[in-house]
Structures are given as structure tokens and as C-alpha cells.
Amino acid sequence: MTTALSKPKQETVSVNSTNSPQINAASLDSLSPNQQLLPLTALVNSHDRLEIGGCDVVDLVQQYGSPLYILDEVSLRTACQQYRDAFAKHYQGQSQVLYASKAWSCLAVCAIVGSEGLGIDVVSAGEILTALRAGVSPSLIYFHGNNKSLEELTYALESGCTVVVDNWHELKTLESLALEQTSKPRIMLRLTPGIECHTHEYIQTGHIDSKFGFDPNEIDAVFAFLSKSSLNCVGIHAHIGSQIFELQPHQDIGGVMVQWFKLAGEKYGLKFSELNIGGGLGIRYVESDDPPSIEEWVKTVSAGVTDAFVAEGLALPKLLCEPGRSLIGSTCVTAYTIGGSKTVPDIRTYITVDGGMSDNPRPITYQSKYRAVVANHMSASLSQTVTIAGKHCESGDILIKDIQLPVTNPGDILVVFGTGAYNYSMASNYNRLPKAAAVVVEGGESSLIVKRETREDLLRQDCLPERLRQ
Ligand code: LLP
């Protein structure tokens, strides 16, 4: 469904913050685009409402209901271009950016990033199917995961995807599957580089005690196996974690990986051409977050890889990376309708919204922080400190603790920023809530990209055995 909405006059962005009494256009504009809390097209329109992609957010909620994920196409395309342009500028060899679709896998998102020339990193048959149906070439689909099933591996090979092999069991399974293939299956190896970074322990992956990838002490045995196998191993991969602000760990990857590249060629005659250094660049969720820009990150990893390969006298590899959050995180907001409130004297006021941990499980899982505004009163003064509670039967279902907002009333629209990554993709039906809808907005038009689930949808997979029927 596509709806044309009239585009009101552009005015100054004025967005409220919880840290400082007011964060306004001037302070936001001075930040580089990828460090924005807001989608690039966000502005306050002449009705004092938040507008994104030329669409009035309050009108969007009226049309599509809430909770509603609102994806700003311009922001997503811009982030893709920033990655591409930065590699063109800072890396002399070939490069390929893959979108880590675990951040948000759906047809429209894969189609947009695919049309920007990005490939896709997938971690399940479902994500492979989504990328393929979105029109992404299988030659640009890389399949990850630490326990891929036989069925998934078969599907990936038949589809022509590259498999990023995680462990011995998978390697041997692929070797036996290779015998049935007409051409040698294209694979890469995931190795644990032993690089630690500062992020939530659940999303660290590069340290030695990780469930992902081959341990460095297995490398000789793996290379020896590959040198006699029917698999076409094109290179190696490492991913060290997510929501990382430091540049040093990503700078160091090249130095670790080049040794393995060298070993593979010199001792085992394996001709590697691709090096995938994973994703992980963090984004700004709150004002105190200070991630490097996409360009700084690309410049750093490019220099790290280039220096390491030149020092070893090796040709530059095709450099792959697979960002998720830094591509899509800031491009989307979630709009909720405010319901009731509860004031606990001298302690806090809870304001409840019509979603919560089912559409955004990150606060309860990682204690993640978010910013929000009341989209129908953008310039109202911030007169109260409140806690935004979700509607789930769980005390921990708190979306934002202690945020400054204007006085709110039931029916007001609360918009939470930075919900593009790991929100829809980690959404659940907890408490049997239907999953929220998503729209993409661009140039004053909104288009549905994920339909809202209905109550009937919730029963779609249920079976009631005859003997249990009342
Ligand atoms: N490549 C691999 C192999 C990964 O495991 C991941 C993320 C990425 C790339 C993309 O990382 P990014 O650029 O998005 O940081 N649910 C957590 C994040 C889990 C990340 C899992 N792997 C969260 O909500 O913070």
C-alpha cells in the first residue's frame, strides 16, 4: 500500500533529551550524520509534530496503527553509500560490504541494501530465503552460524551461497555434500582471533572463549584438511562483537588474520583471496554515546589490513565487512500510543505504551538505553521525569527509565529513536501480542513493508488435538 501524504513546511528540528533539559537542532546538526540519534530526514513540521521521510508520524500511526516501526529510506541508503564510498576512498584493493541481516531481515530492507550494491550476511535458511526473494544475487550471500543444519547447508549450496564454516562438524558435513555438487562449494572459514573489545558480554565474539569459529590452535589441522578437500575455500572471517566504539580492536584484526593467510598459502598451498573482518561498529543511542563515523571505521580497518599485508609482502585481499547495526540502527523509530500512567509518590511516574519488550527486547536483555519524544507536541516544555513502561506482564518491561517529557495524555504518540537494529528481528509474541507493522517512508510517501499481525495470525501455527476439543 502506498499513500501520498502532503509534506508540511520544514522547520527547525528540536528534540528533547533526558540528559540535558533540551537538545535542539544546533547540537544535533553539529554531529556527523551517522552519529545522529535521529533518522536523517527527521524534522518538526508546522503542526509541531515529528515528520520523517516527509511523513507526519502522527498521521502514520492513524493510518497503520501502533506500535509502528518507521524506516527512513534515505537514512538507510545514505549509510550504505557511506560504507561503499569509504572503501573506495581508503582501500586500494577490491571490497564488498555485506549487510548483516540478523539486524533486520525482511524483503524490503534486503531489497534496499541490495539495490545499493551490498551483499547480505545471513544466519539461517529463513534469512537466505528472504535475501534471495528480495532479489539479492546468491554470489553476494554469505551464510554464517555455529550450528547450521544439514537441510540449511544443502539449501545454501543449492542456492549458490558462500558458506562461512564455523567448526569441524560443519566442515566434514560440507565435504560429504561436496561430492554431490557439480562445482566445488564456495566456503570461508570463521576463526576466533583472540581480540577482546568492550561491549556487553552477550555480544562479544572475538575472545578465545567464544562459541563461534575455529580456535587458533586448530588452524593447521583445518588447513591440512582443506588442502586435500573438494571445497573451494576463498578466505577467512572473524567477527569480534557488536556495538563497539573503540577502533583499536578492528585495527588489530588485519595483523592477526594476515598470519593465517600467509600460513595457508605458504605451508598448505591454499590460495585465499577474501578477508572478512565482520561487523560491530556501534551507534549512538543516547547523547553520551560517541561512536566513530562509518568513514573513520572503514579507514581504520583498511589501514590495518593494508599495513599487515604489505608488511608480509602479500597482495591485498578482497576486503569484506558485514555491518548490521551501523547500517540500519538509526534509520528507524518506533511509534507507540501512550495509555495510562501511575504515579508512585516520591518515587516515579510510569507512563505505559502499547508495546514493549515484545517489539524491543533490548532494554530488558542488555539494559540498553533509548531516547524518545512526544511526536504530537514536539516543542512542549519538558516538565516531568517519567519512566516508560511496556504493556507486558513483567516488571522488567521498561523501555526507558527516567526520561524527561512534556506532560502527556492518553492517546499521545511516543516515538523511540534508534530501533532499526535487533528490534523487529528479535521481536516476539510474548503475552500473545501480535507483532507490530513496519513502514518505509520516503519523499512524503509511506509503504507498508511488514503487515501487522492479527489475532488470528497468532493461532496460525496452533493445533488442537481432537481429544482436547471441548
Ligand atoms: N557478523 C557476524 C558474524 C555477527 O555475529 C554479527 C552480529 C554481525 C556481523 C553484525 O554486527 P553489528 O554490525 O550489527 O554489530 N542482539 C544484539 C546484537 C547481536 C549481534 C550478533 N551478531 C543487540 O541487540 O545488541
Automatic annotation (TrEMBL):
Question: What cofactor is needed?
Answer: pyridoxal 5'-phosphate
Lyase in keyword set: yes
Q: Its catalytic activity?
A: meso-2,6-diaminopimelate + H(+) = L-lysine + CO2
An example GO BP is: lysine biosynthetic process via diaminopimelate
Q: Which UniProt keywords apply?
A: Amino-acid biosynthesis, Decarboxylase, Lyase, Lysine biosynthesis, Pyridoxal phosphate
Modified positions (N6-(pyridoxal phosphate)lysine) in chain numbering: 102
Task: List its EC numbers.
Answer: 4.1.1.20
Q: Which GO terms describe its molecular function?
A: diaminopimelate decarboxylase activity; pyridoxal phosphate binding
* EC class (word): lyase
Q: State where pyridoxal 5'-phosphate binds.
A: 280, 322-325, 422
Would I find Iron among this entry's keywords?
no
UniProt domain Orn/DAP/Arg decarboxylase 2 N-terminal: residue ranges:
77-328
Q: Which InterPro entries match?
A: Ala_racemase/Decarboxylase_C, DAP_deCOOHase_LysA, De-COase2_N, Orn/DAP/Arg_de-COase, PLP-binding_barrel
**Binding site residues for substrate:** 325, 362, 366, 394, 422
| SUPFAM superfamilies reported for this sequence | Alanine racemase C-terminal domain-like, PLP-binding barrel
Pathway terms, separated by semicolons: Amino-acid biosynthesis; L-lysine biosynthesis via DAP pathway; L-lysine from DL-2,6-diaminopimelate: step 1/1
Query: Where are the catalytic residues?
Result: 393
How is the quaternary structure described? Homodimer.
Role according to the record: Specifically catalyzes the decarboxylation of meso-diaminopimelate (meso-DAP) to L-lysine.
Q: Tell me which family the UniProt entry assigns to this protein.
A: Belongs to the Orn/Lys/Arg decarboxylase class-II family. LysA subfamily.
**What's this protein's name?**
Diaminopimelate decarboxylase
Q: Which organism is it from?
A: Pseudanabaena frigida
Q: Which gene encodes it?
A: lysA
